[in-house]
Amino acid sequence: SSAMAEERPLAVVTCTAPVNIAVIKYWGKRDNDLILPINSSLSVTLHQDQLKTTTTAAASRDFTEDRLWLNGEEADVGHPRLQACLREVRRLARKRRGGSTEDAAPLSLSYKIHIATENNFPTAAGLASSAAGYACLVSALARLYGVEGELSEVARRGSGSACRSMLGGFVQWQRGERPDGRDSLAHQVAPETHWPELRVLVLVVSGEKKQVGSTAGMQTSVDTSPLLKHRAEVVVPERLALMMRHIRERDFEGFGQLTMQDSNQFHATCLDTFPPIFYLNDLSRHIIALAHRFNAHHGRTKVAYTFDAGPNAVIFTLADTVAEFVEVVRRSFPPATNGDQWGVPAGSGVPWCQDPAPTAPNPCPAPQPGPGPQLVDDPSQHLLGADGLPRCRA
Ligand code: DP6
Hints:
single chain; alpha+beta; Alpha-Beta Plaits; six-stranded mixed beta sheet; four-stranded antiparallel beta sheet; 9 helices; about 20% strand; globular; disordered N terminus; binds ligand DP6; cholesterol metabolism
């Protein structure tokens, strides 16, 4: 064979993708396999300077099997949702190539692939790592196979909330009507530049793994909670329209109040689930009370909390309020015991915000809204080396 053939070229792509935080929550599926929700939802995509997932996907005819590494550890590549994403991207690639076999450029769809993915935030932060993770996986695979266009539908197959991480700024995941899910897609409501003063603080109250995962929890809620049914049919459609208006007008008071109310209703549906699901703990409730006291003191809504399927709080506020609220949180809780680390040891009961250096003048570099997935041009950033295996990290 020729020297060319012996070079064993490796096709490799690296992407990053953002975390998103829902202000109108997704909770409940009408189709478990296609991941179709019972209601539309709306989220803010966070800037990737602070929080992001990085994924490298590589393909080579020399790979003998598909392989996956999560944060440096080899993991099961056979996960049905991961396989669904892979299958869908390949299907789109095949469709795009119009079934022609003698295509000049594209990568062979029969090559095995290697995937390495890592988060720059600890899983203990309890953030929607699956949303950023699947958005990143789908972005990297799509680039690898030369697929463009609507990809939120593919990311949705990995995790419902992941479809919202495919876009930046303010994003709505439209429920859709079709049984095949073709209209259950994410749309950008406003770009990240729309509200540059908006800030997000993450208060980690527990590094423990959640007791009931979202997938199982929402299934039980759909099966047993009449409140969830009412929420999906009546409350969410009204709130979505209202939330869009608050965002359009950059009305923080309206936005913040509705964000808190929607988080509270989501947790009420969890309590209405039978047997009930509890995601909030005493510290979560302490933060809720603190936020209301803070707002009452100022005579208006200056901070808003929201909680997903776990006890850690996400706080929305405006840039001019970050330092004051962080100070209030600090005074209200015992000092952190683990110095300048993100996250806290499980069970230590210490709230934490995104604060790599507590004594620094800017104590809490709170993320603001940010863009969707990005292609990483710099080859030194690939997580896989020329041999297709994870690079040794310092
Ligand atoms: C409470 O997207 O994690 O964070 O679709 O089963 O993977 P699956 O669930 P997931 O659920 C997220 C639920 C939530 C609210 C939200 O992000 O809208």
